[in-house]
Design goal:
The protein is an all-alpha fold. Helices cover 74% and strands 0% of the residues. The chain contains five helices and no strands. The longest helix has 36 residues.
Amino acid sequence: MAVVGGRLCSDLIMRSFRLSSFLALVAFLLALAGQILITLAVHWGLGRHMEGLSLKEIRMTMTYVWQAQPIQLLANTTGKVSIAALLVTLHGPKYAKSKTIFIWTLAAISTIFVIIAIVMIYAQCSPVAKLWNESLLGNCDGRIRNQNFAYVQGGERVMWMRTGGSYSARTE
């Protein structure tokens, strides 16, 4: 909160509102919304033994957990895109165009992976409500597919951290 607030204050003082600051604010608000949903899940029983929960508590806990997942994924990715927007403003004139293309390509790949992940989260069960209510008729055949995609997405995240993290050390 302090970092986002500091960035917004510096933008006000400089009288220029940067894309990176706007995206940081959006990422913060998405993370806050996701945290609110997880807090509601904790209220309904997340973290307690399942044997001590009623069916309603289990259903409500899972509802909030499944609703929080895409919001938290979007918050994480919006934060990455915010960092990409900030890095684009920091690099020096040497190879400026290629550096800009490189960093925005990383941001686009990360965003595409997260959009695919969100679609796959909700497409794994039919009907979708079966995610949090196992008693409904239907199937959840997409769980193994999601697990396999998570491995691929993990590789993408390592690529982002390795290349994006070392990017700022190579600016001239």
